[in-house]
């Protein structure tokens, strides 16, 4: 573990002149602030396998780029001589540094001082970090390691207040700059809000928990005994609720993921997404793709292997992999250009659009649209999930939310049907109208593609139920009907009527996308700035 502290500047020279005493006091206070909660508390923190706030900042930012703000903020007690008797720094380290040479605002809770709780906080300090990101339109990274609020804060304030921070532009930030929230411990109440109010929330498996109220609050309110991990750990926050978009094993992994996530996004919505150098040939054709989809419809395939084959080498960055797993959402690159990617995963729930998958899709489309990333949809969509549980969960409502998100997105789309494209979910290939009402239907297909309002097998069983039952050989009659309708549903017949732009050889998918992405980036450059959305 790297234990080199990122420090606020402290001059070590002996002070002379009229201001010697003041400069010496300044240096002493900065030295105390650099030491965080002191050697003993820092040692305890390290013993838990955790980095300090300053170490986290050092790992996140480009070397030597951090400029601290508010190092002198904290609680000071003065003696009878009106001089400082003690100084306890505020338990947040904030400032501006660089990630990949781009200015970025960072705010890191310091757990070594009062467990990062609001009791040891100067709230104006971390609020200022958010406001600075808003004012100067810079990316923002919050590293949260906070025990939450404390009733002891009332003694400090001498009064209560209506909850909330009037000067905190938390919602507004999400519409203009990338925001990352990292949970680095148990984050309750406000800490949970600061993690969740982001475009990507990250947690550490087994070490991070997120909840509105911790176990003591749950016990008091509901009479239930529960531990932190069972209440707000990985299973609850990432796999089941989707409140957290990424779960990793170590703090270093979380900070690396943060840097990588931000590399796909512009600094703000008035800028284009960044383009990086690419050594992967744009005309690369992978013959394996021609056999990636099994002819037997009962067999599944690995969609992640297809993504790896099509996009720039090593460029796929997946989000929310364990939530709504029947749909995959990720960033990737084509010829160095960042794009958003949607695809179905037939290995989970057959790739059907579940409630969680629909919520995940809507959030991802909004993210791409906000920051002007073109979207590629590689579809194998069997339809909206059915069954009593799916209906009870409100799957249709969630699916409509995803559909509205797609329709309201103004970025360029290119959709390729790999296999199935059925029903309401199948209609969500790309915007049919878009915000302008003239969205261009860039839709292609592989030869393995099939589509329709309902699956042929289910449709035959429903429409010909009596005929099949009355047939001399019901099975043979059913198979003959299915063969008839499968022939009609051939993608060739759709292409004949320009229902799709083309049916392409799968191996040629990458060259097609690399040619399109240049046009897509030209289009996004003409619609920079905040996006507007109607009610859904």
Automatic annotation (TrEMBL):
Residues 16-277 form the CoA carboxyltransferase N-terminal domain. Gene3D superfamilies: 2-enoyl-CoA Hydratase, Chain A, domain 1. Keywords: Transferase. InterPro entries: AccD/PCCB, AcCoA_carboxyl_beta, ClpP/crotonase-like_dom_sf, COA_CT_C, COA_CT_N. The keyword Transcription regulation does not apply. Pfam families: Carboxyl_trans. Residues 281-536 form the CoA carboxyltransferase C-terminal domain. One of its GO terms (molecular function) is transferase activity. The keyword Transferase applies. PANTHER family: PROPIONYL-COA CARBOXYLASE BETA CHAIN (PTHR43842), PROPIONYL-COA CARBOXYLASE BETA CHAIN, MITOCHONDRIAL (PTHR43842:SF2). This is Carboxyl transferase domain-containing protein.
């Amino acid at each position: 573990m790297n234990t080199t502290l990122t420090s606020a500047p402290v001059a070590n020279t002996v002070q002379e002149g009229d201001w010697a005493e003041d400069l010496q006091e300044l240096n002493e206070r900065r030295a105390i602030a650099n030491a965080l909660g002191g050697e003993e508390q820092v040692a305890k923190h390290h013993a838990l396998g955790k980095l300090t706030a300053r170490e986290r900042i050092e790992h996140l930012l480009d070397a030597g780029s951090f400029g601290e703000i508010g190092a002198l903020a904290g609680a000071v007690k003065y003696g009878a001589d009106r001089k400082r008797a003690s100084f306890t720094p505020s338990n947040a380290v904030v400032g501006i540094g660089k990630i990949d040479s781009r200015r970025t605002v960072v705010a890191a809770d310091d757990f070594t001082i009062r467990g990062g709780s609001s009791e040891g906080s100067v709230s104006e300090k971390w609020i200022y970090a958010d406001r600075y990101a808003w004012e100067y339109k810079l990316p923002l990274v919050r590293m949260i390691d906070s025990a939450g609020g404390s009733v002891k804060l009332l003694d400090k304030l001498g009064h209560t207040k209506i909850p909330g921070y009037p000067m905190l532009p938390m919602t507004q930030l999400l519409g203009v700059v990338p925001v990352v929230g990292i949970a680095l411990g148990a984050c309750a109440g406000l800490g949970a809000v600061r993690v969740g109010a982001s475009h990507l929330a990250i947690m550490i498996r087994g070490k991070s928990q997120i909840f509105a109220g911790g176990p003591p609050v749950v016990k008091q309110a509901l009479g239930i005994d529960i531990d932190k991990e069972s209440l707000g750990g990985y299973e609850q926050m990432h796999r089941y609720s989707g409140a957290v978009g990424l779960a990793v094993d170590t703090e270093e992994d979380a900070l690396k993921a943060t840097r990588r996530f931000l590399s796909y996004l512009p600094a703000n919505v008035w800028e284009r997404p960044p383009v990086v150098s690419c050594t992967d040939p744009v005309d690369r054709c992978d013959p394996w793709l021609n056999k990636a989809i099994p002819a037997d419809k009962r067999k599944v395939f690995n969609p992640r292997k297809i993504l790896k084959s099509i996009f720039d080498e090593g460029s796929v960055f997946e989000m929310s992999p364990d939530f709504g797993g029947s749909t995959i959402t990720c960033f990737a690159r084509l010829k160095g250009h960042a794009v958003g990617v949607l695809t179905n995963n037939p290995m989970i729930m057959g790739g059907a659009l579940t409630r969680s998958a629909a919520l995940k899709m809507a959030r991802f489309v909004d993210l791409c649209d906000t920051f002007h990333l073109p979207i590629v949809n590689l579809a194998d969509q069997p339809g909206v999930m059915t069954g009593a549980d799916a209906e009870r969960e409100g799957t249709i409502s969630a699916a409509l939310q995803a559909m509205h998100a797609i329709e309201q997105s103004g970025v360029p789309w290119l959709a390729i049907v790999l296999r199935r494209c059925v029903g309401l979910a199948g209609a969500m290939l790309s915007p049919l109208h878009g915000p302008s009402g003239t969205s261009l239907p860039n839709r292609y297909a592989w030869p393995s593609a099939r589509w329709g309002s309902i699956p042929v097998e289910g449709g035959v069983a429903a429409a010909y139920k009596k005929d099949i039952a009355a047939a001399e050989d019901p099975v043979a009659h059913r198979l003959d009907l299915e063969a008839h309708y499968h022939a009609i549903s051939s993608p060739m017949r759709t292409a004949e009527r320009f229902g799709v732009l083309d049916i392409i050889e799968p191996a040629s998918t990458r060259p097609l996308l690399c040619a399109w992405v240049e046009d897509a980036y030209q289009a996004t450059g003409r619609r920079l700035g905040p996006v507007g959305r109607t009610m859904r």
